[in-house]
Amino acid sequence: MSSFLWWVGQIIATLMGGFFLLFGIHLLILAYDLDDPFWFIMTFFASSFMILISAALLAGFIVKMIAAIRGSGENIQ
């Protein structure tokens, strides 16, 4: 049961990371339509930060799941 919950948690976290990655990319594209330079800079850096954090978390979740599938992560909790 613990292993099943771990997989469910990893899949949910991966889906959330993917959602925020796509949302950050969408926000970055929308930043280029802004007319005010201040709002452009703020939106550009905020979306870049969102992309960076979500991509790093997404990569970590995927590496954990691959390690668990290969058997090297049998004690992952």
Amount of helix: over 70%
How big is the Rg? 17 Å
Q: What proportion strand? A: under 5%
Tell me the number of strands.
Answer: 0
Number of distinct helices: 2
Number of domains: 1
Shape: elongated
N-to-C terminal Cα separation, in Å?
12 Å
Uncertain spans: none
Reported for the largest beta sheet, the result is: none
Order of helices and strands: HH
Report the mean per-residue pLDDT as an integer.
91
Estimated structural class: mainly alpha
Q: What's a quick, concise take on this entry?
A:
Helices cover 83% and strands 0% of the residues.
Write the layout of secondary structure elements.
Elements: H1 2-31, H2 37-70
Helix pairs in contact: 1-2
List keywords for this structure.
single chain; 77 residues; mainly alpha; 2 helices; 0% strand; elongated
Structure description:
With about 80 residues, the protein is an all-alpha fold. It has one domain. About 85% of the residues lie in helices and about 0% in strands. The chain is built from 2 helices and no strands. The chain has helices spanning about 1-30, 35-70. The relative contact order is 0.16. The model has no long low-confidence stretch (mean pLDDT about 90).
